[in-house]
Write a structure and sequence with these properties.
The chain is mainly α. Helices cover 76% and strands 0% of the residues. It is built from five helices and no strands. Helix 2 packs antiparallel against helix 3, helix 2 packs parallel to helix 4 and helix 4 runs antiparallel to helix 5. The termini are far apart.
């Protein structure tokens, strides 16, 4: 069920961005990648786990760097970052022991993270979003 809801949520956010025109701005999907990466920090803080907080901050910094780099250079990096986050979701429990992560979260987040880059790739392919910033 978590997987279906994750897919539905990613499609709902994508369609919302398309209907409102928010996804025409190159910052929309990089921002989504930053927000997605921040949730594991939230879970560590909610659980009061300082041992999980450090590694979660490092992981967050890596995905935030990819989002910024992709925004400034090429949105394909954001697509790769979202896919990489989906893969990371499957292995997260083996990388970081974060007691605040709900049991259903990795499946939900992986489904979201695997669907959002497909939606973004379609937007790029259809010419609705520029891969590169002007002057890059």
């Amino acid at each position: 069920m978590a997987i279906l809801i994750g897919i539905g949520a990613a499609l709902a956010v994508g369609v919302f961005g398309t209907i409102t025109g928010l996804d025409r701005e190159r910052a929309f999907y990089p921002t989504i990648l930053v927000v997605i990466a921040s949730y594991y920090i939230l879970f560590a803080v909610m659980a009061g786990s300082l041992t999980a907080l450090g590694p979660e901050l490092v992981i967050f910094a890596l995905f935030t760097a990819v989002a910024a780099w992709g925004f400034r250079r090429d949105l394909r990096l954001v697509i790769v970052g979202l896919v990489a986050h989906a893969v990371m979701d499957f292995f997260h429990g083996g990388i970081v022991s974060n007691p605040g992560v709900p049991s259903w979260w990795p499946a939900w987040c992986a489904a979201y993270d695997a669907t959002a880059p497909v939606y973004l790739a379609v937007l790029v392919w259809r010419g609705r979003v520029a891969l590169r910033s002007v002057g890059a």
